[in-house]
Design a protein that fits this description.
The chain is α+β, with helices and mostly antiparallel strands and 83 residues long. It has a single domain, classed as Glutaredoxin, CATH 3.40.30.10. The chain has a 4-stranded mixed β-sheet, sandwiched between helices. It is globular, with a radius of gyration of 12 Å.
């Protein structure tokens, strides 16, 4: 299991952008499609006060809700996953 998990949906543009950014940076991650995983959907709703916001990204326990590029990279740096 990777230090980075992306909870999202294949149809979600923000999820696609986040995954493309991680791919471009060479950061390994696990992807969980919340449309196909009821437990994952319940988990993101728990993290988002009942809302189904995608992507929700878990970076070593730090939860990011619909992060922009800067927020994502700052969190990766803080966890030592990129320089």
């Amino acid at each position: 299991m990777s230090d980075v998990r992306v909870y999202g949906a294949d149809w979600c543009e923000d999820t696609v952008v986040t995954r493309e950014q991680l791919d471009a940076l060479g950061i390994p991650y696990d992807y969980v499609d919340v449309d196909a995983d009821e437990q994952a959907e319940a988990w993101i709703k728990q993290q988002n006060h009942g809302k189904r916001n995608t992507p929700t990204v878990d970076i070593g326990g730090q939860i990011l809700i619909e992060p922009d590029e800067t927020q994502l990279e700052d969190a990766l740096r803080a966890k030592g996953l990129m320089s």
